[in-house]
What we know:
Number of helices: 15
Number of domains: 3
Helix content: 40-55%
Structural class: alpha+beta
Distance between the termini: 51 Å
Strand order of the largest sheet: 4-5-7-6
Strand content: 15-25%
Largest sheet: 4 strands, mixed
Amino acid sequence: MYNIVFFRELESAGVSTRTIRQAQKCCLLKLCSGVYTVILVCGDDSHHRIARFIEDTAWTDRHARTPQQELQDDYHYRELLRRLRILHYPRYRADDTVWGKSAAMLHGIPLFGIDSGPISVVHPRHSSKTREIHRSNRFVDDADRIGHSHLEVTSPIRTSLDLIRIRGQQEGFAAMEFVLRQGIFARFSAFEPKFGYPPEFLRLARRELVDNWYPVVGRLTTGQATARRMSDALNPKSESIAESYCSFNLKALRVGGFDQQVTIYDDLGFVSRTDFVHRATMTILEVDGVGKYVKVGRELMNRESDQHNRLLGLGYTVVRFRFKELLNLSVFATKLFSQAPELRKHLGAWE
């Protein structure tokens, strides 16, 4: 897949170092030292030996039909390159375990922004730093490691807990909610979120926490109290990193009484399934993810405008947050309480 080729393979095929350097401006993309992916069938005769390594034609077709700038602006494409780099890095040591941000990439745990820095691994005896890999001397219990392809990686639960310290509580919380949600779906496969959540959903989430999360929290060498407190506050109904950020902010401000993913009707029928509803104050919070309206067209915007007007007609106050407004707690709080001042009466409900 993805036409991965190593320097030694290119060299054995008679491709010179000079040709490899030239091809990186054309048909060859360097992932890390000694590892490349062939991305195009080019017209340069001197690159014909490189073309022999093309097996994944869908990969080369994608590059042929997509402008380079569009690929660079594509978050998922850049995330994939990062994942390929971690998977195919050639100089891992025995007993290396991929962890932290790199483990999150392999597990598909959403992070804000692409981490283009060194690969993060832990090792029980050694530590070292190079431009491409940071190795920390740290012990990880066998129970918190899993196999991923040919690599040892911290488990999704352990990875999300590690992110609390590495990336901060807000991003760690979002990672934890994602992992909890995925764990429930894997364990109880009958759910289809687009049709709503069954009454037992949160009860099953609690069982998942008790059975699978608390033991991992108990094996942490530091930060157990924070990890346990944050675990108990998780709500797997968050359907995006933006919703998790909003949920975290509400808990940080100690505003109680919000329910997530609530379906609202009026006399005409279904209006919307809202992200957050505070029934006592008739307040709705809606959050936009990164670039929500990019390439979605006018139809979605018109539909949401109609929903907004119908919600106002029912007496709700609707507060919409752009993603960047979720990143700063003071910005979030200022907007929240200026547009929905009645919520101040519900401060402290999380204590």
